[in-house]
Amino acid sequence: MSEVYATRRARLRDRCQASGSASALVSRPANVRYLAGAAPAGSVLLLGRREDLLVSPGPQDDRSHGARPDDRLRQHLLEGPGGDPAVAAADLAAAQDADVLAVEEHHLTVTRHRALASVAPRLRLTDLGSAVEQLRVVKDEEEISCLRIGAEIADQALGELLESILVGRTERHLALELERRLVDHGADGPAFRTSVATGPNAGRRGHRPTDRRVEEGDFLSVCLGAAYHGYRCEIGRTFVIGTSPADWQIELYDLVFAAQRAGREGLVPGAAYRDVDRAARQVLHSAGYAEGLEPVMGHGVGLEIDEDPQLAPSSMGKLDACVPVTVEPGVHLPGRGGVRIDDTLVVRPEADGGPELLTITTKELLAL
By C-alpha distance, which of 2, 9, 55, 358 is closest to 191? Predict the structure, then answer.
């Protein structure tokens, strides 16, 4: 992996130099991990004129699941508690005779930005922008392998839950059980807060589990994900509890399934982000569900659960191969419940079989 990290830093350096900066300070945690490996919490990365440095407030945490920083990258530890690694990195950049330092202004607070300027007044601070996030959009096969394993863990945890007795249990209890199963099967932890929604809560995006108990005839919608070696996937499914689905439940489920399938089929290299969103959204619009839909039909995943690209009506840009995204349309009917179906896929060209589905739990409407 050391060569991978070095290559990533070289690509970022090329971008910086093209914009007139020989040095850069990366402070956003996911970006630091992308360029330097699993670093101690609070670490920043300095791309220096003479040497790259990982500046950390202390040694690696024992809870790092065995992951470590790039062993080719020299680590600079702060001498005492309470120091700011970003401020120390600016001082180190100045010591390497930097005159311009690109920083992630979208991550730095105003106070921290002022502290950088004060410690090295001869440095001219410029904005690095989202240069690292743009590099992260296209994943290499090692990253995709981590996502694939995370998806397998999430599928396994969900499959085991579906084999258990659900009626009478609370949303909160089911969510906690799912998160325990994720860890039992090898995940670092949940990729995000697990959502379990029943009855009138079903179909709400990001619903926080409550003490409502599962009842016969409920829709049950579940959204979970596993983090594996830092990479985060997502899966969402909707089921009916205890009985054969009612006609309205079948109709709503079939509609959301059709929308999700339309979005999945649009995942080809060169497709515009907004066209993928439109393909899924139009199915729901045509059925009269234009109001109350989520602002996006999907998003990128990786070291963060919600990253670029955004599959939304106003998004600019086109898909590349090896970009993992979710497709997650849903409809919620106030007071009745609703349906969400959510998959993580990797964009692949048709010659390679088209989009690769990572989350494979059945999308058949099951009565549990």
Answer: 358
Place of tokens 């863990």: 153
pLDDT, tens digit (0-9, with 9 covering 90-100), for 242-285: 889 999 999 999 999 999 999 999 999 999 999 999 999 999 99
- Spatial strand order in the sheet of 231-232: 189-190, 226-228, 231-232
**Which tens digit of pLDDT belongs to each residue from 33-71?**
999 999 999 999 999 999 999 999 987 665 555 568 898
How wide is the angle at C-alpha 364 spanned by C-alphas 181 and 162, nearest 5°?
A: 25
100-103 vs 124-127, strand pairing mode: parallel
pTM for this entry: 0.94
Residue 339 tokens, joined: 């349906």
Residue 37 buriedness (CB in 10 A; 0-12 / 13-18 / 19+): buried
Which tokens go with 353? 């079989």
Name the nearest CA neighbour of 277 among 260, 258, 294, 297. 297
Burial 86-123 (b: 16+ CB within 10 A, else e): bbbbbebbbeeebebbbbbeebbeeeeeeebbebbeeb
122: Cα separation from own chain's centroid: 38
Coil, strand, or helix at residue 309? strand
Q: Return all residues near 82 (Cβ < 8 A) that are at least 6 apart.
A: none
Q: Which amino acid is at 348?
A: R
The dihedral of CA 287, 290, 294, 300: what is its sign? positive
Structure tokens at 119: 């410690």
